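Table 4 source record.
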Amino acid sequence: MKAIKVNKFARSVFSIVTVLFITLSLQSCASKMLFSNSSVVPGAEGSVKVKKDKNNNYSIDLTVMHLADPKRLDPPKETYIVWMETGETGTKNIGQLKTSSSLLSKTLKSSLKTVATAKPTGFFITAEDKADIQYPAGQVVLKTVSF
C-alpha cells in the first residue's frame, strides 16, 4: 500500500516539475517574425528573432537576403535603416544594413544584432539618404506583421 502511495506521489511531483519546466521554457523562447513581400525589392526576404533575456531586455537578431544595393533603387539611396516599433517608445532607428556577398555565394545577405529595453511590436526597413536620422523619411522596403 505504501509503495502505491509513493509511486502516485512521485508521478504527481514529476508532472508538476514537467509542467513548470515547459512553461518556463516557452517564456524564454524566441519569437520570430517574417518580413512581408516587397514591391520595392521583390526578391528580398528576411526575418527577425526577438528573445527576452533574464535582465528583461530584448535580444534582436535580424537577417535579410537578396536586398539590392540601395544605389540601384529608383530613386537611388545611400543606405537601408532598420526601425523598431514599440508601444512604449514609438519608432526608433536601431541601425543600418550593409549588403554583402561571400566569396562562394553571390547571395546578398544583411544582418543586424542588437538589444532593446522596450518590447518590439514590429520592424520595418527604409531606404534613406543618411544613416543618422531620427525619423523615417524614405521609402519602406520591407515590413513585418506586428506581434
